[in-house]
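Can't paste images in this forum, so I'm doing it all in text. The chain is below; anyone willing to post the predicted C-alpha cells underneath?
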Amino acid sequence: MSGRIRDVDVAHVRDRSPIDEVVGEYVQLKNAGGGQRKGLCPFHDEKTPSFHVTPSKGFFHCFGCQTGGDVIAFVMKIDHLTFTETVEKLADRIGYQLSYEAGSASAQPAGKRSRLVAANASAAKFFQEQLKSQDAIIGRDFLEKRGFNGEAIKSFEVGYAPKEWDSLTKALRAEGFTLEELTIVGLSKEGQRGPIDRFRNRLIWPIRDITGDVVGFGARKLASDEEDNGPKYLNTPETPIYKKSQLLYGLDRAKKEIAKQRQVVVVEGYTDVMAAHLAGVTTAVATCGTAFGDDHIRILRRLLMDDDSFRGEVIFTFDGDAAGQKAALRAFDDDQKFVTQTFVAVEANGLDPCELRQKSGDAAVRDLIARRVPLFEFAIRTQLKNFDLTIPEGRVAALNATAPLIGKIRDASLRPEYVRTLAGWLGMDVEVVNSAVKKVATKSSPLKVEDAPVSNWRPDPNEPRLALEREVLKVRLQMPALARNWREIELNAFSHPAYERLRSYIDTQRDFEAIDIEKIESEELRSFVTELLVEPVRTEGAITDKYVSSITARLNEVALSRSIAEIKSSLQRLNPVENEKEYGEIFARLVEMESKRRSLRELAFGEGLS
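Text version of the structure:
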C-alpha cells in the first residue's frame, strides 16, 4: 500500500488515542490537579517533573525543554517514526483499518514500521510453533533442565529457529513479506546461494519494546562449537525498530509493577528474567546484548518517577565472578545518574537468578533480592578485597583506592556515614579517612544530570509581573468562547515580546475561534501555544464569564496605568503657559483615561485571580 493517509482517518486515530494512556506506556504519570497529569520528561534529563499532559485537550508539554504537541507528535518523537508510521502504529493500537489516498504528489511508501513489526510478530509465532517440532527437543530439554515448564515457555513466548537454511524466510515470504522487508528487520540475510535465515538451530526470545511490539529477537546457540562456531548469544542487528541501547527485555510486562512498587531489578539474561518473574520478582528486566547505559537509565527513571519527591530502588544482580564484579563497579558510576537508592544482589556462591531458582526454588530468588546491599557498600568492599588489610601498607593502599569512591557520592549527606564505615573496615581514625576523601572530592565534582536549557525568547511562567498577561492568553487559547472582550484589550497590554507575538497571531484569527496549532508555521510559536494550552488556569473556582471579564479588565487597567504614567511624564515636561493647547488636550485625555481606569478596577475586582 502506498499513498497519503486520509485526513479523516488521521483525525479518527488522534481522537481515539487518549494521550494520557499513550504517554503512560512510556512515562509514569501522576495527578497534578486541574485535570493535569505530570511526570519526568522522556526527552531530556531532569530531576523534578516538568512534563505535563492535559487529557481533556489532547496535548502534552514539557516546561523544561519546551517540547509539546498532540499524541501523534509524542509518538513520532519518542519512537523516532515518520508521521505515516506513527498514525499506523496508533491505528494498530486501537484496531482501526486505515485507508490511503492514491495518486498523491507527495505520496511515499507507507507502513514501513508497521510492516516490520508485523514481520517480527509473524516470525515470533513461527518460532513458537517450531519449538513443538521433533527437531526442537534439544531446545525443550534446555528449558526444562532450567526449571521452565510448558506454561512458562508459552507465557514468555520462547521459540525455536530450525536448522534449515531458509525455513523462516520461505514461510514469511509466503505470507506476503518481501525479501527487502525481511532483510531490513534482521530476519534474513544474503547467503552464498541466496537469502537465508539469520537465526538457525537456536532458542529464540522475542524482544518487545515498552508498548509491547515485537521489535527483535535474542537467540541462544544449542549446537556445540564444532557444529556451530557462531556466538553463544545472537541478537537482532540494529534496525529501524530495534535499538538495543534503548531496549530492556521484559520491560513490557514489568513496567506496571515497576511503577507500582517503585523498584526495578536488572538481571543479566533472558532466562534470569524468566526465573525472576516466575519466582515473584515481577520487576525484573535485562539488557539486550549490550551494557547497561544512559538510555536504559532514562527509561527506568521515567517509570520510577525518579526525582527528589519520588524515590525508588534499582537493584542490580551480577554473577559472582570477576566479570560480574566489574559490571557492578561500572554501575557505580551509573548510580550517580539515579536519585533512587541503588543496590546490588550477588549470590554468595556466584549463582545467577536462573541457577539459584533451579537449585533452591522460588523463595531463594526472592530472598536474594531482599538481601540486597547498597551499591556504594558493595563497590567499596569489592575494592578492599584487593588489599591485605593486616599490614599498614595494605590499609593505606586500600584507603587510596576507596576514598575516590566515597568522594564521588553525589549525596553529600551520605559521605560522612561511609567515611565512618570505611574507617571501621580499615581500622583507621575517622579523621584520617575523612581527610583522604576531602582531597579527592575537591579534584572532581560529582556527576550531575543537567536540565535542558529553556528557550531564551520565552517568558518565565512563574514571573509574577507577567502572571496576568499569561492568564488572559491561556483563557483565550483554552476557552475562546469566553474571550468575548478580546478585541477590546489595550494595544500595550502585553509587555513581554513573546506574549505580544502571540497576541498578534491571535488577532489574525476569527473571534471565538479555537487555535489550530497544526496551522502555525513557526515551530517556536507552535510549541509556545501548546505550552499555554496545557497549563492550568490559575483559579480555584469555575472559569466563568465573570472571571474572564475580571482578568481582562484587570489587564486593561494595568496597561492603562502604564499609559497614564507616560502621559503624566509628558505633562511634566510641558510648560502649560507656552503650550496651553497641547497641554489641555493631553490633560483631557488623562482625565478620560483615569475615568476608564476606575471603571475597569470596579469590574476587575468583581472576581480576581486566585
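The chain has five domains: 4-101, 112-242, 254-380, 386-443, 464-604. The domain at 254-380 is CATH 3.40.1360.10 (Dna Topoisomerase Vi A Subunit; Chain: A, domain 2).
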